[in-house]
Amino acid sequence: MKQEIYELFKSAAVQAILEVIGSELQKRNESPFWREKVVPFSEAILSVLVPLRDQGVLFDPQGDRVSTLTPEIFFAWSDFVSLKTLAFTIQKSNEAGVLLRTKLDETLCKKYTSVDLTILGAYLSKNRVNLENEYLDFPISSYNLHQGVSNVIKSLL
């Protein structure tokens, strides 16, 4: 299973990765509470990471270039604070037409094309993240819930 997941993250479409995650949730008989949360959370993250991967401009939460999307990079972004930062980084990059707030080479940053934030934005908004002001905090209950979701995903992958 582990090798299959690495191959999926390396090149598969968002939907293919989500299907495997959903299938694993069923096999492991996770509670309905977590099943309802894991797939939408995963989709929100992957809706941005996969397009960045496909453009060759994937980076980690520290802004360093990453050549391959792996479960480890996915987990790094699954931290709720990091995910919020990713949303604002992509929003600002979309507005500027160039990838911002990373340590990637300038040439790569200029190759960046706009990434759709609809899924990630809807997910964050649903979880009471202010999408207008990056510096406003979100409820600690949202953070704690997503720590639990991350732990379930880690156990699956």
Give structural notes.
Helix 2 packs antiparallel against helix 3, helix 3 packs antiparallel against helix 7 and helix 3 packs across helix 8. Helix content is 67%, strand content 0%. It has 8 helices and no strands. 29% of the residues are buried. It has one domain. It starts with a helix and ends with a helix. By secondary structure, the chain is mainly alpha-helical.
C-alpha-based Rg, rounded:
15 Å
Main beta sheet: strand number and arrangement? none
Q: What is the molecular shape? A: globular
- Per DSSP, what share of the residues sits in E-state strands of 2 or more residues? under 5%
How many DSSP-defined strands?
A: 0
The whole-number mean of residue pLDDT values reads 90
Helix/sheet category: mainly alpha
Q: Please, how many helices? A: 8
Question: Uncertain spans, ≥5 residues at pLDDT below 50?
Answer: none
How many domains? The number is 1
Secondary-structure element order, N to C: HHHHHHHH
Helical proportion? 55-70%
Distance between the termini: 8 Å
Protein traits:
157 residues, mainly alpha, 0% strand
What's a quick, concise take on this entry?
With 157 residues, the chain is mainly α.
